Amino acid sequence: MTRHILVIEDNEDLAGLLKLHLGDLLYKVELAFDGKSGLSKAKSGTYDLIILDLMLPAMDGLEVCRQLRASSTYTPILMLTSKSSELDRVLGLELGADDYVTKPFSIRELVARVKALFRRIDELKSTTHPEGLRVLSHGGLLIDKARRTVKVKGIPVELTAKEFDLLLHFARHPGRVFTRSQLLDSVWGYGHDGYEHTVNSHINRLRAKIEENPAQPRYVLTVWGVGYKFAEFDAQGAK
């Protein structure tokens, strides 16, 4: 299967270099050199990954990311950031970027991140039991992996891409306790050390959307001093 990648990068030399090296891996790569044209391509095409620079003319990368995550189609996003833009990296992760690489970077590092993202995507699409079940059901919570939709007691709930990935990861492992670092590694990917607050903020927003009383959660539980776990339910939906 040929992977299709869109690179949105205003440095044409760097963009061409990325196209060359990713093309060596038999990926099909298209280029855009500003935010507006990149967003237009992203919305009109079908891509397996978008490599998105933060500093872009016409429209910056954060706005491109925000608009992509507001659309109904989910495409993984790998952000390119500068060393001095920690706040932008945090905002990018909050908006739903799947990973980031800090400039200057080696081509080998970027290729490794791309491969890691594709491995995580393939794992999410795995057809092995029990993770291959299309719909997961836990105590009135229904998660449709293929459609990336969630319902609580029959009522649809709108989640961001990363909120959905986080909930799906929990639901696949009921009763298992995860530290914040483990969640960062499994859901956001390696290289996010120091961003544990991102996990906290996503869990707070997730609880606000799926819990009847976020202060007394039924699904995503806090294990004090350790991390979080997803509640275990019996066949009747009781804990």
Short description:
The chain has helices at 12-24, 35-44, 61-70, 86-95, 107-124, 161-172, 180-188, 196-210; strands at 4-8, 28-32, 49-53, 77-82, 99-103, 135-138, 141-144, 149-152, 155-157, 177-178, 220-223, 227-230. It is α/β, with parallel strands linked by helices and 239 residues long.
Give keywords.
239 residues, alpha/beta, Rossmann fold, Arc Repressor Mutant, subunit A, 5-stranded parallel beta sheet, 8 helices, elongated
Describe what you observe in this structure.
The strands form 3 sheets. The chain has a 5-stranded parallel sheet with strand order 2-1-3-4-5, with helices on both faces. Strands 6-7-8-9 form a 4-stranded antiparallel sheet, covered by helices on one side. The protein has a 3-stranded antiparallel sheet with strand order 10-12-11. The longest helix is centred in the middle third of the chain and has 18 residues, at 107-124. It has helices at residues 12-24, 35-44, 61-70, 86-95, 107-124, 161-172, 180-188, 196-210; strands spanning 4-8, 28-32, 49-53, 77-82, 99-103, 135-138, 141-144, 149-152, 155-157, 177-178, 220-223, 227-230. 41% of the residues lie in helices and 21% in strands. The model is unreliable at 127-132 (pLDDT under 50). It contains 8 helices and 12 strands. The chain folds into 2 domains: 4-124, Response regulator (Rossmann fold, 3-Layer(aba) Sandwich), CATH 3.40.50; 135-230, Orthogonal Bundle (Arc Repressor Mutant, subunit A). Helix 3 links the parallel strand 3 and strand 4 (77-82). It has 239 residues and is of the alpha/beta class.
